[in-house]
Design goal:
about 190 residues, 2 domains, binds adenosine-5'-triphosphate, Rossmann fold, 7 helices
Protein backbone atom coordinates (compact mmCIF):
# COMPACT_ATOMS: atom_id res chain seq x y z
CA UNK A 1 0.00 0.00 0.00
CA UNK A 2 1.20 3.53 -0.76
CA UNK A 3 2.56 5.61 2.07
CA UNK A 4 0.41 8.63 2.82
CA UNK A 5 2.35 10.14 5.72
CA UNK A 6 6.00 9.60 6.61
CA UNK A 7 7.47 11.14 9.74
CA UNK A 8 11.22 10.97 10.21
CA UNK A 9 13.11 11.92 13.34
CA UNK A 10 10.58 14.58 14.33
CA UNK A 11 12.02 16.63 17.19
CA UNK A 12 10.16 19.50 18.87
CA UNK A 13 11.45 21.56 21.77
CA UNK A 14 9.99 24.35 23.90
CA UNK A 15 12.37 27.05 25.10
CA UNK A 16 10.95 28.11 28.45
CA UNK A 17 12.27 30.29 31.29
CA UNK A 18 12.91 27.07 33.18
CA UNK A 19 14.95 25.48 30.42
CA UNK A 20 14.39 23.44 27.29
CA UNK A 21 11.48 20.98 27.25
CA UNK A 22 12.32 18.19 24.82
CA UNK A 23 8.67 17.43 24.12
CA UNK A 24 9.18 15.23 21.05
CA UNK A 25 12.51 13.52 20.76
CA UNK A 26 13.09 12.05 17.32
CA UNK A 27 9.99 10.01 16.49
CA UNK A 28 9.57 8.24 13.16
CA UNK A 29 6.55 6.41 11.80
CA UNK A 30 4.49 6.13 8.65
CA UNK A 31 0.81 5.79 7.76
CA UNK A 32 -0.38 3.95 4.67
CA UNK A 33 -3.46 5.04 2.72
CA UNK A 34 -6.54 3.85 4.62
CA UNK A 35 -4.48 2.70 7.60
CA UNK A 36 -5.34 3.57 11.21
CA UNK A 37 -2.36 4.23 13.45
CA UNK A 38 -2.76 4.79 17.19
CA UNK A 39 -0.12 6.62 19.23
CA UNK A 40 -0.14 5.70 22.91
CA UNK A 41 2.04 6.79 25.80
CA UNK A 42 2.00 8.20 29.29
CA UNK A 43 0.69 11.67 30.02
CA UNK A 44 3.10 14.37 28.83
CA UNK A 45 5.16 12.08 26.60
CA UNK A 46 4.53 14.26 23.54
CA UNK A 47 1.52 12.79 21.70
CA UNK A 48 -0.30 16.10 21.22
CA UNK A 49 2.86 18.06 20.46
CA UNK A 50 3.86 15.55 17.78
CA UNK A 51 0.41 15.87 16.16
CA UNK A 52 0.54 19.69 16.33
CA UNK A 53 4.06 19.62 14.84
CA UNK A 54 2.81 17.71 11.81
CA UNK A 55 0.03 20.24 11.26
CA UNK A 56 2.32 23.26 11.66
CA UNK A 57 0.49 24.41 14.79
CA UNK A 58 3.34 24.64 17.28
CA UNK A 59 3.43 28.12 18.85
CA UNK A 60 6.84 29.63 17.95
CA UNK A 61 8.05 30.95 20.36
CA UNK A 62 8.31 29.11 22.70
CA UNK A 63 8.17 25.98 20.54
CA UNK A 64 10.37 24.98 17.63
CA UNK A 65 10.62 21.95 15.39
CA UNK A 66 14.35 21.50 15.54
CA UNK A 67 14.71 18.50 13.29
CA UNK A 68 12.79 16.09 11.14
CA UNK A 69 10.82 15.53 7.97
CA UNK A 70 7.06 15.18 7.56
CA UNK A 71 6.27 13.90 4.09
CA UNK A 72 2.59 14.02 3.17
CA UNK A 73 1.61 13.02 -0.33
CA UNK A 74 5.24 13.37 -1.39
CA UNK A 75 5.69 16.89 0.01
CA UNK A 76 7.78 17.85 3.05
CA UNK A 77 5.36 19.89 5.15
CA UNK A 78 8.12 21.27 7.35
CA UNK A 79 9.58 23.04 4.32
CA UNK A 80 6.34 24.89 3.54
CA UNK A 81 6.00 28.51 4.63
CA UNK A 82 3.23 29.30 7.11
CA UNK A 83 1.32 31.03 4.29
CA UNK A 84 1.53 27.86 2.20
CA UNK A 85 0.37 25.76 5.16
CA UNK A 86 -2.63 28.02 5.72
CA UNK A 87 -3.57 28.05 2.06
CA UNK A 88 -3.19 24.33 1.82
CA UNK A 89 -6.01 21.99 2.73
CA UNK A 90 -4.19 21.05 5.96
CA UNK A 91 -5.78 23.54 8.24
CA UNK A 92 -9.11 24.00 6.59
CA UNK A 93 -11.01 22.32 9.36
CA UNK A 94 -9.60 24.50 12.09
CA UNK A 95 -12.27 27.13 11.53
CA UNK A 96 -15.56 27.72 9.78
CA UNK A 97 -18.72 25.72 9.98
CA UNK A 98 -19.58 22.36 8.52
CA UNK A 99 -21.86 24.01 6.03
CA UNK A 100 -19.22 26.54 4.89
CA UNK A 101 -16.64 23.77 4.53
CA UNK A 102 -18.87 21.97 2.08
CA UNK A 103 -19.71 25.10 0.10
CA UNK A 104 -16.15 26.39 0.02
CA UNK A 105 -14.12 23.25 -0.42
CA UNK A 106 -16.38 20.99 -2.43
CA UNK A 107 -18.01 23.82 -4.42
CA UNK A 108 -21.46 22.59 -3.44
CA UNK A 109 -24.54 24.72 -3.95
CA UNK A 110 -26.13 26.04 -0.76
CA UNK A 111 -28.96 23.48 -0.85
CA UNK A 112 -26.66 20.52 -1.60
CA UNK A 113 -24.31 21.63 1.20
CA UNK A 114 -27.22 21.90 3.58
CA UNK A 115 -28.47 18.41 2.68
CA UNK A 116 -25.00 16.86 2.99
CA UNK A 117 -24.40 18.65 6.30
CA UNK A 118 -27.62 17.15 7.70
CA UNK A 119 -26.55 13.70 6.45
CA UNK A 120 -23.19 14.07 8.17
CA UNK A 121 -24.80 15.14 11.44
CA UNK A 122 -27.05 12.07 11.32
CA UNK A 123 -24.01 9.93 10.55
CA UNK A 124 -22.32 11.04 13.77
CA UNK A 125 -25.48 10.33 15.76
CA UNK A 126 -27.03 13.79 16.17
CA UNK A 127 -30.81 13.38 16.32
CA UNK A 128 -33.09 15.74 14.44
CA UNK A 129 -30.12 16.78 12.29
CA UNK A 130 -31.91 19.18 9.97
CA UNK A 131 -33.16 21.30 12.84
CA UNK A 132 -29.81 21.08 14.65
CA UNK A 133 -28.02 22.51 11.61
CA UNK A 134 -29.23 25.94 12.61
CA UNK A 135 -28.06 25.65 16.20
CA UNK A 136 -25.22 27.72 17.63
CA UNK A 137 -22.46 25.80 19.43
CA UNK A 138 -23.70 26.96 22.88
CA UNK A 139 -27.07 25.32 22.14
CA UNK A 140 -25.45 21.91 21.83
CA UNK A 141 -24.11 19.60 24.52
CA UNK A 142 -20.36 18.98 24.82
CA UNK A 143 -20.75 15.55 23.27
CA UNK A 144 -22.76 16.99 20.37
CA UNK A 145 -20.13 19.64 19.73
CA UNK A 146 -17.49 16.93 19.64
CA UNK A 147 -19.55 14.94 17.14
CA UNK A 148 -20.00 18.04 14.97
CA UNK A 149 -16.19 18.40 14.92
CA UNK A 150 -15.94 14.81 13.71
CA UNK A 151 -18.56 15.48 11.03
CA UNK A 152 -16.50 18.50 9.95
CA UNK A 153 -13.35 16.41 9.88
CA UNK A 154 -14.87 13.82 7.54
CA UNK A 155 -16.95 16.27 5.47
CA UNK A 156 -14.46 16.95 2.69
CA UNK A 157 -13.31 13.34 2.31
CA UNK A 158 -9.79 13.95 3.63
CA UNK A 159 -7.02 11.48 2.90
CA UNK A 160 -5.83 11.76 6.49
CA UNK A 161 -7.43 12.70 9.79
CA UNK A 162 -5.30 13.41 12.83
CA UNK A 163 -7.55 12.92 15.83
CA UNK A 164 -6.17 13.80 19.27
CA UNK A 165 -8.40 12.10 21.84
CA UNK A 166 -11.51 12.43 19.66
CA UNK A 167 -13.82 10.71 22.13
CA UNK A 168 -12.79 12.14 25.50
CA UNK A 169 -16.00 14.10 26.26
CA UNK A 170 -18.31 11.33 25.12
CA UNK A 171 -20.01 8.57 27.06
CA UNK A 172 -18.97 4.96 26.44
CA UNK A 173 -21.74 4.13 23.96
CA UNK A 174 -21.09 7.20 21.83
CA UNK A 175 -17.33 6.61 22.05
CA UNK A 176 -17.84 3.20 20.51
CA UNK A 177 -20.13 4.63 17.81
CA UNK A 178 -17.61 7.33 16.87
CA UNK A 179 -14.72 4.86 16.67
CA UNK A 180 -16.86 2.54 14.57
CA UNK A 181 -17.83 5.44 12.34
CA UNK A 182 -14.24 6.54 11.81
CA UNK A 183 -13.16 2.97 11.17
CA UNK A 184 -16.08 2.04 8.95
CA UNK A 185 -16.20 5.01 6.64
CA UNK A 186 -12.61 5.13 5.47
CA UNK A 187 -11.24 5.64 2.90
CA UNK A 188 -14.28 7.51 1.57
CA UNK A 189 -15.38 8.85 4.95
CA UNK A 190 -19.02 8.01 4.63
CA UNK A 191 -19.56 9.32 1.13
CA UNK A 192 -22.23 7.30 -0.62
N1 LIG B 1 3.53 25.59 25.03
C1 LIG B 1 4.32 24.78 25.76
N2 LIG B 1 5.33 25.28 26.46
C2 LIG B 1 6.14 24.48 27.18
N3 LIG B 1 6.01 23.14 27.28
C3 LIG B 1 4.99 22.59 26.60
C4 LIG B 1 4.08 23.37 25.81
N4 LIG B 1 3.17 22.53 25.25
C5 LIG B 1 3.49 21.29 25.67
N5 LIG B 1 4.57 21.31 26.48
C6 LIG B 1 5.22 20.18 27.12
O1 LIG B 1 5.48 19.19 26.13
C7 LIG B 1 5.37 17.89 26.72
C8 LIG B 1 4.46 17.03 25.84
O2 LIG B 1 3.11 17.52 25.95
P1 LIG B 1 1.90 16.83 25.18
O3 LIG B 1 0.74 17.74 25.34
O4 LIG B 1 2.33 16.48 23.81
O5 LIG B 1 1.69 15.50 26.01
P2 LIG B 1 0.65 14.30 25.75
O6 LIG B 1 1.47 13.07 25.52
O7 LIG B 1 -0.30 14.68 24.67
O8 LIG B 1 -0.05 14.23 27.16
P3 LIG B 1 -1.57 13.87 27.60
O9 LIG B 1 -1.77 12.41 27.34
O10 LIG B 1 -1.58 14.19 29.06
O11 LIG B 1 -2.49 14.77 26.79
C9 LIG B 1 4.87 18.07 28.14
O12 LIG B 1 5.99 17.99 29.00
C10 LIG B 1 4.30 19.47 28.12
O13 LIG B 1 4.40 20.07 29.40
Amino acid sequence: MAKLLEVYNLTTHFYTDNGVVEAVDGISYSVDEGEIVGIVGESGCGKSVSALSIMGLIPDPPGKIVEGEVIFDGQDLLKLSSAQMTQDSWQRHCDGSLYCDLELHLNMTASAASQRAAELLSLVGIPDAERRLKDYPHQMSGGMRQRVMIAMAVSCNPKLIIADEPTTALDMTIQAQILELMQGCRPNWGRR
